[in-house]
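Spend some time on this chain, tokens included, and walk me through the fold:

. . .
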Amino acid sequence: MATLLDDAPAGLVGLLGAAPAGATVAAIEPVARDHKMALADLAAGEAVVKYGVPIGRATRPIARGAWVHLHNLASALDERSSSLDVHTGAPTDTAAAYV
């Protein structure tokens, strides 16, 4: 798993850190800064690891270069993660109460 330091359009993205100098991965879709991108194919149910720590499980197959977020990841840290809006993070499993 890689965390993006800048917005990335679909296409080649350079890797830093433990990757060999000049290493790249092909982003198959745009990925926003601070979001995660898969560096290897992940099967449904497979652990998603960020900074060496398992943070959740893939809820469906995730291809190398894909955006990894609420639409394909169930958080091990927040049991409600699958009910949050993928773009805003707002809960979708409760109705807003207006008084």
Residues 2-83 form a domain with the Archaeosine Trna-guanine Transglycosylase; Chain: A, domain 4 fold (CATH 2.30.130.110). The first strand starts at residue 2 and ends at 3. The chain has one domain: 2-83.
